[in-house]
Each structure stands twice: as structure tokens, then as C-alpha cells.
Amino acid sequence: MNIVSVESSVVSLPFDMGGPYCRFAGKLWDRLEILLVRVETEDGLVGWGEAFGHASIPATRAALDTIVAPLAIGKDASDILALTREVLHSTHLLGRNGNFVYAWSGIEIALWDLLGKRAGMPVYRLLGGSRHRELEAYSSLLAYGVAEIAARNTLAAADAGYRYIKLHETTREALLHSQRAVQGRGVQIMLDVNCPWDVPTALEMARSMRDDGMYWLEEPVWPPEDADGLARVRECGIPIAAGENVAGVHGFKALIQAGAIDIAQPSVTKLGGIGEAMKVAQLCAAHGLRVVPHSPYFGPGFIATLHIAAALPQAPLVEVLWMDMQANPFAPYVHARGGKLQVPQGPGLGCDPDPDVLARYRVGEVHCITGQEVAA
Ligand SMILES: [Mg+2]
């Protein structure tokens, strides 16, 4: 069945982050936004996807509406891998890691949803899994910049049942405060610093925290594509996680060849969708590396991550941002209970958005790209 329309819309959800709101790419981050992608085929079947996301939504949406969606209209919705090759080749001069690939990721996820609906099977089964219906989540705290607030939220996340908790802080003080807050409870703490340091500084920081027992250190080096620099930091002995900011499977290949990572973090709404994330998982399996997906998402990108994790034999941890949302059109699957997530069992992603929640929290216009616009 051919694709007849691609719609984009934005859902904006109020949330409480357990501390003062922070800034993201220079903008105040006080609403949780999802860039929803709806793909319809000629027989009226609908699939849902999510494209990255957050502060980049206006740019990703422009790439989707003007270039990427028109390339997909009229194409066979089930020809996912070949269509990925075609669309990414058509847009490669516009950027191999950024809004065009993010936009394609949103459509690609929707195509897997369509494929599963047509086959009457959940996506994780299409990907070759069947045993994991429940997954362990890790709680990904937000950036508070204050060690006491990080520790307070660490304790709250442990009380909510999480056994793995990640901080978005850049100080050893924050790490130690949080570890102390949950001492003796068997909770593992990870530290995600988001690429703040040059290599000498990252080495100094890693050496100072070498014996602190953190579960992993994430993205210590600026820029994220400095695989050799990251490999030098890894020699300190702390497990290194990275990958949310590299381009596709070949970005991971470069990290792996440099000996830069212990844990690969493919991000389904950024790197090209479910097919590309599975390629990364296969590459990592061939090199004996762990995969723990990056998923600070609250829509189909999160649900797609659940299916990817459920399809993998190791059933990796799934990242869940630590926050309270007023509502979410993809509840209950975006919420962990007792540190566990349920994998939807319906066909496709198994989780269409709740229309009432969509109607209430959608902002702005729905953009619909059809064959008519493409012909014009
Ligand atoms: Mg990260």
C-alpha cells in the first residue's frame, strides 16, 4: 500500500521536573513537546511516529513538511529499508546528522507501526523477539545544577522503585550526594555530563571519579565525534556510554573502532528510526558491546524504543525521564511502575494516541502533506 499523506503536529504537555525549569538550547524548557508524525496509506490505515524533538521541533518540522514527507508520498509503505536508503541519499547533502534524518526517523517509525498493524503483530515480534513483555527502566533525572536537588530526586526515584538512576550533572559533588542518598539500597548511579569537557579536563574528571563506583559515565568529551579523545578517557576504567549524537550506524562504527565506548546509545528519533537502531544493535553484538537506547521521549519514539529493547535478547534498560506530566496521549505505556515498563501487545506500536488528550494538548495547526502538494 502506498503512502498518501504525512501529517505533522505538536503536542505540548505541562510537566513538573522536580526542580526549577532549565534551559535547552537557549530556550526555557517548561513544556514537554512531542513532534507527532501521522502517516496514512491509500487504504486508510494510519501509523504514528515521532521525530526529534524538543527545541529542534520547528527546524525538524520544516525539514519534514518541505523535503522529507514529499519524498515519501506515493511510495510503498512496507518497503522500509529501501525507502530509508532512498530518502537519506536524497537528503545527504543537507546533513547526515540533524533535522532531515530526524524528520525521516518520524516517518520510519510510523511505517513500522503500519507494517505491524497490517501483519496483526506487535513491532517487537516483527523484529524477532517474543520473550520480553516487561522491561526494566532507568530513571533519567533532569539537570538541576544543584547537588542537593539531584540527591533529593535520586532518593525519590529509588523510592519509586528504580534500581538504576542517571544524573544530568557535571560535578563529582552531585554524584557523591546522590550515591549517599541511596546508600545501602543496591541502586546504581550513572552520570551523564552532555559533552562539557575537552580531553584533558575529561581525563582529570574521570580520574577523580575512578573509584566512585558509578555505573557509567556518559559523553564526557566535547565534541561528541571525538572518538579518539573518548577512547583516552575510557582508559581510566569507568565504563563509557555514548552515541546519542552520532550519525547512524557508521557513527557507531567509528566509536567502536576507536575503542571509545562500552555502552552504545542509539536514539530512535534521531538516527533514522527503528531499522537503523537495529543495525546499531547488531553491530554492537558483533563487537561484544552493550546497547542501552537513548530515549528522552514521550510519544511514538518512546514506544518504538520499548519494541527495540523487547526485541533484543538482553532486554536492555530503557531510559525514562524523571518528571510528572499532567497528561500524555500515550499513557500508560510511557510511564514506569515500580521501575518497570510494559511492552504494548497490540499490532504495530500497539499504542495509538488518545484522541481526547491530543485534542486538549495539541498546539498550532496540523500540517498535512499529500500527493496534491507534491504534484504542485
Ligand atoms: Mg545523554
What labels would you give this structure?
13 helices; Mandelate_racemase_N_dom; globular; binds magnesium ion; TIM Barrel; magnesium ion binding; 2 domains
SSE arrangement:
Layout: E1 3-16, E2 23-24, E3 27-28, E4 31-41, E5 46-51, H1 57-72, H2 80-90, H3 99-119, H4 123-126, E6 134-140, H5 147-159, E7 164-167, H6 172-181, E8 188-192, H7 199-209, E9 217-218, H8 227-234, E10 240-242, H9 248-257, E11 263-264, H10 274-286, E12 290-291, H11 300-311, E13 318-321, E14 324-325, E15 340-342, H12 355-361, E16 362-370, H13 371-375
Parallel strand pairs: 6-7, 6-13, 7-8, 8-9, 9-10, 10-11, 11-12
Antiparallel strand pairs: 1-4, 1-14, 1-16, 2-3, 4-5, 6-15
Helix pairs in contact: 1-3, 2-3, 5-6, 7-8, 9-10
Bound molecules: magnesium ion (MG).
Magnesium ion (MG) binds at residues 192, 218-219, 244, 294.
Task: Outline the structure in words.
The chain is an alpha/beta fold and 376 residues long. Strands 6, 7, 8, 9, 10, 11, 12, 13 and 15 form a nine-stranded mixed β-sheet that branches. The chain is 38% helix and 21% strand. The chain is globular. Residues 192, 218-219, 244, 294 line the site of magnesium ion (MG).
* Cα Rg: 20 Å
How many helices? 13
Distance between the termini: 22 Å
| Main beta-sheet annotation | 9 strands, mixed
Average of pLDDT: 96
CATH topology title of the largest domain: TIM Barrel
GO molecular function: hydro-lyase activity; magnesium ion binding
Protein name: L-alanine-DL-glutamate epimerase
GO biological process, one term: amino acid catabolic process
Domain Mandelate racemase/muconate lactonizing enzyme C-terminal: 147-239
